[in-house]
Input
Amino acid sequence: MSSITADDLRTRVADFLAAHDFSAMDRLEFLRARFDAGLAWVHFPEGLGGLGAARALQSVVDEEFTAAGAPDNEPRKNVIGLGMAAPTILAFGTPEQRARYLRPLWTGEEIWCQLFSEPGAGSDLAALGTRAVRDGDDWVVTGQKVWTSGAHMARWAILVTRTDPDIPKHQGMTYFLCDMTAPGVEVRPLRQITGEAEFNEVFLTSVRIPDAQRIGAVGEGWKVAQTTLMNERVAIGGTVYPREGGMIAPVVKTWRERPELRTPELQDRLVKLWVEAETLRLAGTRLRQQLASGAPGPEGSAMKVAFSELNQAVSGLEIELLGEDGLTYDDWTFRRSESVDFTRRSPGYRYLRAKGNSIEGGTSEVLRNIISERVLGMPSEPRVDKDVAWKDLPR
Output
């Protein structure tokens, strides 16, 4: 365990800021220098944006830079890269892959997306059929992915493929890093209930991927993907807001500023949801502390389920509280948005966008199975296809 303390990090940040005047520097040069100084992910190894410090100390560094008014790496635009691709590359990537991808990922120079779900493989990801066939030093990939957030602005993608259809579905998968500018990659927008298209469908037609962009061993794609998925659930549901932060914030603000809207029934529901939000905040803090001692586990699934249900309940209450005003919607204009912003948009947007929370990042039904089996130790559901070759599965 590293001996670096919070005070040590505060001193390092102060020294860094004294030597790097961000008001006079190019933003990217400042962020690159911060990465090189080990002040990006402090728990990552030295030379890869970190110092080998305790993961819990990341907030100390972030708070110091924020207080100084320094530019950040716009994390809302690269949630998949920062929350999913980076920890996977760190865990399974080669030294060359770590050196190539982590720095431009953290600075935001290269945005990432996630090519996992398919039209016939969403909740059952292991049923995916996108094929990767070896051709010398390359793999030729053909298939379709869907619900790909940020694909329209992504430079790279984490991709799971089928490399052996003759063995059971969980065993014949391989994980790659896909260049989204490569020939044969086509991105098409999917318009959502909000009017926007923050996610897409992606068609891969004979896309050539060098074997040097494979993450993990051939046939171990499911194992690698589990690391990505556990980090994804923490990234979505494990954000720790301050008290009365997140989705509950605008509802509480309206409640205090517009007493004429209050009723006893709405008050009872709001208080219950406020308590749930506070409980989730404290649980998120505990989960972050657990992460300081290791990789995320199945507990992140519980956080993600609770996050989804709370968001949907709170946004529904807000619409009811506002009455006729809650029926308005700020902007139906079709656009390919760069990020999801729950707190600075209209109540209508929050209500509609929250409907996707229980689907994205693993459906609540699938996550409840994970909780029951891996957290509570309950018997697994019967799986008749467990030992059947993928090619023989009914479709």
